[in-house]
């Protein structure tokens, strides 16, 4: 284990942790993270992203669940760059399984980022489909197949 304390905030540790999450499977991540940093569940990079943010961004549902249930990571923690939670990230990158898991684990669908957008707003803004209703209001329609195409 690297020389750090339970209150470690070293950005180098965060870089190693986030890199492991993007490259390794859940079993390896569970083995690696505690050896990298004593505060692996809470340390953040220069953009305020933690392990949960990256697990949600990469569609790593097993890691995400482990971080929340076993490591007590706060699902409502926002990054510094955009004010996004892990839920914003899973929605934006189209990982529906992670989105569902985060909601089941207590994520708030009404949580707003720095631009006052909720995770559901990100879906609406990203959708290429627009339906009008007599010119009075605009309704956006979202289809899950659009998410799948983006992830391929």
Automatic annotation (TrEMBL):
Please name the SUPFAM superfamilies in this protein's record: Ankyrin repeat
Native organism is Desmophyllum pertusum
- State the source organism's domain of life: Eukaryota
Chain positions of ANK repeats: 82-114
Under the heading InterPro entries, the entry gives: Ankyrin_rpt, Ankyrin_rpt-contain_sf, Signaling_Regulatory_Domain
Which of UniProt's keywords are assigned here? Answer: ANK repeat, Repeat
Enumerate the PANTHER family for this protein: BTK-BINDING PROTEIN-RELATED, INHIBITOR OF BRUTON TYROSINE KINASE
Q: What is this protein called?
A: ANK_REP_REGION domain-containing protein
């Amino acid at each position: 284990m690297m020389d750090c304390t339970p209150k470690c905030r070293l950005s180098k540790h965060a870089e190693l942790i986030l890199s492991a999450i993007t490259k390794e499977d859940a079993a390896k991540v569970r083995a690696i993270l505690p050896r990298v940093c004593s505060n692996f569940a809470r340390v953040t990079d220069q953009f305020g992203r933690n392990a949960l943010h990256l697990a949600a961004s990469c569609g790593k549902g097993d890691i995400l669940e482990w971080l929340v249930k076993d490591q007590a990571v706060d699902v409502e923690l926002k990054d510094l760059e955009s004010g996004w939670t892990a839920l914003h990230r899973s929605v934006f990158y189209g990982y529906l399984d992670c989105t569902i898991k985060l909601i089941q684990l207590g994520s708030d669908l009404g949580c707003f980022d720095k631009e006052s957008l909720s995770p559901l707003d990100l879906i609406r803004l990203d959708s290429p489909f627009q339906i009008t209703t007599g010119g009075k209001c605009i309704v956006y329609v979202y289809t899950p197949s659009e998410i799948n195409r983006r992830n391929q």
